[in-house]
Fold this protein.
Amino acid sequence: MKLIQLNETVTASNDRDAEALRLRMREAGTLLVNVMSSPGSGKTTLLSRIIRDLKQLKIGVMEADIESDVDARRIEALGAASIQVHTSGMCHMDAGMTASAWEAMEAEDLELIFLENVGNLICPAEYDTGAAKNLMLLSVPEGDDKPLKYPLMFQKSDALIITKTDALPYFDFDLEKCRERVLKLNPGIRIFPVSAKTGEGMEPLEQWLLAQVQAL
Amino acid sequence: MHEMGIVLHLAKTLDQTAEENKLTAIGKVVLQVGEVSGIMTDLFTDAWDYFKLRHSVLKDSQLVLETIPAVTWCDHCKTSYETVKYGKICPRCGSGETWLQQGNECIIKEIEAE
Ligand SMILES: Nc1nc2c(ncn2[C@@H]2O[C@H](COP(=O)(O)OP(=O)(O)OP(=O)(O)O)[C@@H](O)[C@H]2O)c(=O)[nH]1
Ligand SMILES: [Mg+2]
Ligand SMILES: [Zn+2]
C-alpha cells in the first residue's frame, strides 16, 4: 500500500458538485437563492409574500424538509412552481440533493428559485448547495445574541433578513446591537429588517432580489 | 444526525479520489477533527462502519481520528489561548474580541491505498 497525502476537507466532493451546479444554473439563467434559518423564523411566509409581490418574475421554490409537504402546498397554492425534497433525516441540503431537485422540477424557464433549507442554524451553513446567493433569516423572538452563538451562518450569508419586526415592541431585541454584531462577523453582508405580516421593509429586499436576478 | 452527513461526504470524496487515482482498495484513512467541530467521534465511527460496507473500495478501510486542538486568538492583547478551557473571553485581558484560529475543521489528511 502507498500513502497518499490529501489534506482536503471532508466536504471536498460536495464543493465540486456545488461549483458544477452553480455553472449549470448560470447557463440556464436561473438564480438559485439558498434560504437558511431556525425552524419557524418565517421562511415560508416571507417567500409567499415575495411571490405575490414580484409577479413579473417566474419564481419556484424547493422545500427541504425532514418530513411532510405542508410548506410545498402553501407555495403551490400561490401558483408558483414548487418541489418537496425529503432529506431522509439529514440536517442540511447538499449540492447533490439540490441538483436532483432542480432536475426533477423540469423548470429551466424559472428566473428565480428559492431553496428553503432545513430549519437549523448550524449544519446548512457548512454545506455549499450550489446556490448563487445565500440568505439567512433571524426572527425577532429568537433574540439579538444569535450572531454570537452561531457565527458561521452569518459569515456565509450574502444577506440577513431580520423577520417579524412587527413584534419588536414585545421583545427586547436590539436592532442596532444585532446589526453591529453581524457586521463585525461579515462586513459585506446586506441587512434587511422586514415584517412579512405588515409588509414593512419588504420593498428594499425585493429590489435587492430583482437586482441579483438581473445581474446573473 | 450531523455525523451521518459528514461520513456520507467523506465516503463520496474518497470514492472520487479512488477513481481519479485508479485505486482498488483503501486501507487507513487519517482524519483530523477539530476539538470544537462538534463531531462526536463515537457516532462518527459507527456511521463509518455503516457506510464502508456500501462502498466496495472502502470495505477493508480503518478510520484513524486525530484531534486538532482548538485555539482562540485575542485581538486585544494579540495572543492566543486554549479555547476549550477559557471559551470566548480572553483569560489574559478579559476581552471578548476573540476569534477561533483553529479547531473547527474536519480534514482528510492522508490515506493508504493500492
Ligand atoms: N408576527 C409575525 N409573525 C410571523 C411573520 N412571519 C411569519 N410569522 C409567523 O411565524 C410562524 C412560522 O412561520 P413560517 O413561515 O411557517 O416559518 P418557517 O421558517 O417557514 O417554518 P419551518 O418551515 O417550519 O421552519 C407562523 O405562525 C407565521 O404566521 C411576521 O412577519 N410577523
Ligand atoms: Mg417553512
Ligand atoms: Zn486578550
Summary: Residues 2-113 of chain B form a domain with the hypothetical protein PF0899 fold fold (CATH 3.30.2320.80). The pocket of guanosine-5'-triphosphate (ligand 1) is lined by residues A 37, 39-45, 71, 119, 163-164, 166-167, 195-197 (CB under 6 Å).
